[in-house]
Amino acid sequence: MAPGPSPTTEHMYPGLELPLRHFPQKPRENGQEFYRIAAHPECAGASTPILMVREIGMLIFMDRLTDKPNWDHDVFDETVVAQWRHEAFTQSEDYLRDAILADKKLYPAGMPVPNRQRIISKKAFDYCIAELRSKAALFDRTGLIYTLNSRGNRVVKSDSALRNQQAPEQYQRPGADCRVYELVDPSMYPFVHGRSEHLRNELVGVTGAVELCGKGQVTPRKDRSSPMAAPDPNSDSEGWNDFWSETYQWLPANVSFRRDGTAKFTSYINNLHPDKHPEIYDRIEQLLDACIPAWDHVLNGYTHNETTMGNANDGLWGLFDQIRFPKLKDGSYEGLVYENDKSGIWEKFDDDVVTEHEHDHGEIKLPDWHSQILDEDSPYYDSAEEFVANLRKEKWEAIREAIYPEPQEFKPLLNGLRHKLRDRFKDTGLQVVVKMSSIELTPENPEFAEGEWQVEGQLNEHIVATALFFVDCDNVTTGQLSFRMKTFNTTLLFSCEDSVKYYERVYATTLPDEPDYSAPGGIQNFGNIEIRQGRIIAFPNVFQYRVSGFSLQDRTKPGHRRLVTLCLVDPHQRIISTGNVPPQRADWWAEAIFRNGSNFSIGNMPQELFQVLFEQGATDSLNIPPEALDKIRFANRLPLEIMEMVRQHCAVPPGIMTPTEARQHHGMLLEERARFQKRVTEEWMAEEEV
């Protein structure tokens, strides 16, 4: 491990020199470069073009094929490909429809989702094989697999990046009653504006970090007025309040690059003791070395000079940005005359399907307004036969399937990544938030519920990418990580009122009854990726993600899933880090003062002062021998009123937090994050509720 960096004042931090709500992602022509964040719809580059059902199905299908052993070789073996083709055309596609329609309200309650049409058609299958053959070249070079990639948004997974590395180990063992145990939790002892002390220069390193406990000054709050500040929080005119924290910020660790390009921490990881666990620091550095190339491939830049995506990172935007289907033009598709010839966009009428549907699922319910027309006594009909025929036609139109367009001819993927974090930020380095978690299941608590949709970090933390490393999965069922993204306004799909239903079925999204150019976009499900032991999943912070529920395989034995999460702060905008903020933990501070190896001593400190530290919880981690504790606790050499004065003035240095105070901040931070995640989902789901 390396010592702390040389003193520097070159950085300008939000909350210090810059407004706390400094936010280059809000569209303005200021020439600022940054990576995208999608927490709020107003964030530049936060939305994706809407994708068709067939394309989403192809993404999920290709992801499943890349989970097969030796897929990168078998995809060139025609015998194996023929077997895959047979499986694709004979197996149920319910898993595709479930993923595509998750959280959608496209079909009325009780109406089964039509499945007469294959999502993976012959042309779609051939396209997938061609694309996978192109992706195999990247995998063979890097061990990285592009997946769920479309329109400049992508996830990268890898099962081989750490194959020869030992994973970070659990450094504490959870108690028997713990379900989720945060081994390293950035929400404990965070930076608290107006409370935490900081050093203006990045003087706090890894070795010797604990010696600086209690040093620094309190950070003043800054005025938000700035050309690049988010709107005034008092008005909340654009609904930004819950997307920021005026009080809390996770503390990232600073990372630099050695001459050979490998990563090294230059400041301590918050809540991971640098002197007690140097081997874990080394292993997380190895994990970073595996994750940084994955981040290279998922990050896309933005520059406000022309408000055009990709200016900052020439060549990256087009990499693996497949245009698999014709682009929309004037409400239709180039080369497809859908609006002039509707016969080719819907299933042809089949009375037997109507009969079978009503036999299996009951009578097909039609909208109320149909009753005015579908009345046997209506003057619209010359005979009962005509009425029955029209009724059957209306029922058919309620259950018919839209014909999915076929993909275009495959064009080879671009190779040659022009953007690397190691090169672009070799002088300034990176900032990374580290989390280590363990989910423990027992026969008494054998199940873990599905998580909520989430975006990592609030806007003031500027998190642009995440990597999850699943360290260990023991005696638990397979889980999945699901992804979705905000879409552009879907009004562009309107060409005439009759086309709305067709587009709803082809794109699996709900559309308003008429064009509304002020409406927010909808939600685009991108699919899900299987969670496996040893797998890295890296993705940009334009996605919301959700972890599926899981349970014990053998319910007579305990089991667990353990993971490390790395969150990358936008390297274009440095934020306050552990390089600025000495450790705030009272237990680290107390151990440095009162312990010498396994020996405990209060030295020359008055017993009464130590007693106050004990009462405040600052010495909880010391494991003081009972006889020494009794001697100190009952010293009682000062009058009660004097002792009370000592308590009121606090024996702990101002920059140190006791466990009690830290837990209070932790609880308030989690409440704030819950409101944030709720608001994100509300903003994202706005059009889905129409």
Give me the Rg, rounded.
Answer: 29 Å
**SS strand fraction:** 15-25%
| Average pLDDT for all residues | 80
Shape: elongated
Counting helices, strands and paired strands, the structural category is alpha+beta
Helix content: 25-40%
The tally of strands reads 25
State the distance separating the first and last CA atoms.
54 Å
Q: How many separate helices? A: 15
Largest sheet: 9 strands, antiparallel
Region (Disordered): 215-240
Pfam families: DUF4246, DUF4246_N
Domain DUF4246: 13-87, 123-591
InterPro entries: DUF4246 (IPR025340), DUF4246_C (IPR049192), DUF4246_N (IPR049207)
Describe this structure in words.
The chain has 15 helices and 25 strands. It is an alpha+beta fold and 690 residues long. Among the domains are: 33-50 and 154-321 and 415-487 and 522-580 and 667-689, no CATH class; 586-654, no CATH class. α1 crosses α4 and α1 (53-65) crosses α5. Residues 1-8, 164-178, 224-237, 304-320 and 333-341 have low confidence and may be disordered. Residues 13-87, 123-591 form the DUF4246 domain. Residues 215-240 are annotated as: Disordered. InterPro entries: DUF4246, DUF4246_C, DUF4246_N.
Topology readout:
Elements: E1 33-35, H1 53-65, H2 71-74, H3 78-90, H4 94-100, H5 122-142, E2 145-150, E3 153-158, E4 180-184, E5 191-192, E6 197-198, E7 217-218, E8 248-249, E9 253-257, E10 263-265, H6 278-298, E11 301-303, E12 308-309, E13 328-329, E14 332-333, H7 351-361, H8 384-399, H9 421-424, E15 430-441, E16 447-448, E17 463-474, E18 479-486, H10 499-507, E19 523-531, E20 536-540, E21 544-547, E22 550-551, E23 559-569, H11 586-594, E24 595-596, E25 599-600, H12 607-615, H13 626-633, H14 640-648, H15 659-684
Antiparallel strand pairs: 1-11, 2-3, 3-20, 4-15, 5-8, 6-7, 9-10, 9-15, 11-12, 13-14, 15-23, 16-22, 17-20, 17-23, 18-19, 18-21, 24-25
Helix pairs in contact: 1-4, 1-5
Domain DUF4246: 13-87, 123-591
Region (Disordered): 215-240
